[in-house]
Amino acid sequence: DAGVTQSPTHLIKTRGQQVTLRCSPKSGHDTVSWYQQALGQGPQFIFQYYEEEERQRGNFPDRFSGHQFPNYSSELNVNALWLGDSALYLCASSFDEGSTEAFFGQGTRLTVV
Amino acid sequence: GQQLNQSPQSMFIQEGEDVSMNCTSSSIFNTWLWYKQDPGEGPVLLIALYKAGELTSNGRLTAQFGITRKDSFLNISASIPSDVGIYFCAYAGGTSYGKLTFGQGTILTVHP
To answer: What is the C-alpha separation between B2 and B70, in angstroms, rounded?
Structure first.
């Protein structure tokens, strides 16, 4: 049973560019959440997708957007990249109903230069 | 938003020693979660606490949900080198565990 998988594992982008990160949730999970983890900090909630819609959103600008597909996989898009967007981006999946834990992927390390 | 304060920020201990770390908040929570993150990996849930006063163990790990519902601690007994990593406390908001708010983390180093 595959856990949460993210791609790519690392990438480097130039300031002002756009980036798309991908996530496949754990089998049986229908909810995907995205987090940004800056160096030396805890993960910060970006947003959560359920039934292909953004259900909750953290304190992130509109440059951060996402999408969830019918197979529950998800993408995180960041436009007009800033140097400060350099971070580890984590995807977590969970099953919406009932009390279940969120499983995290290994993350995508984004470096903006 | 709500903030969690974790202490200590880092710990350097000898193999075999016991470890204790805690997390406090100014707000009351209904759920406390403890995660561990290894280098290059995502966080992994260690223990989940649901009731004030609850004491839960997972192997050498023990965590408690404070009576005031504003704090929690995590103990690791007889530490081993693979305990190295960053330990985070978190609370779950909303109706699912998908939205988590994390503390700053405690970096644990274990010397053989």
So the answer is: 11
Kindly state whether A48 is in contact with chain B, defined as any CB-CB distance less than 8 angstroms: yes
B87 CB neighbours in chain A (<8 A) are none
What residues in B contact A59, CB-CB < 8 Å?
1
Question: Which strand ranges, in their side-by-side order, compose the sheet holding A74-78?
Answer: A5-7, A19-24, A74-78, A64-68
Assess A53–B contact: CB distance below 8 Å, yes or no: no
Q: A86 in contact with B at a CB cutoff of 8 Å?
A: no
Instruction: Round to whole Å and give the CA distance between A7 and B107.
Output: 27
Query: Which chain B residue's Cα is nearest to A33?
Result: B98
A77 three-state secondary structure: strand
Sequential pLDDT tens for chain B (112 residues): 567 899 999 999 999 999 999 999 988 888 889 999 998 899 999 999 989 999 999 999 999 999 998 999 999 999 999 999 999 999 886 555 568 889 999 999 999 8
For chain B, helix, strand, coil in percent to 5 are 5, 55, 40
Confidence of residue A100 (pLDDT cuts 50, 70, 90): low
Pick the closest to residue B66 from B10, B1, B4 (CA basis).
B4
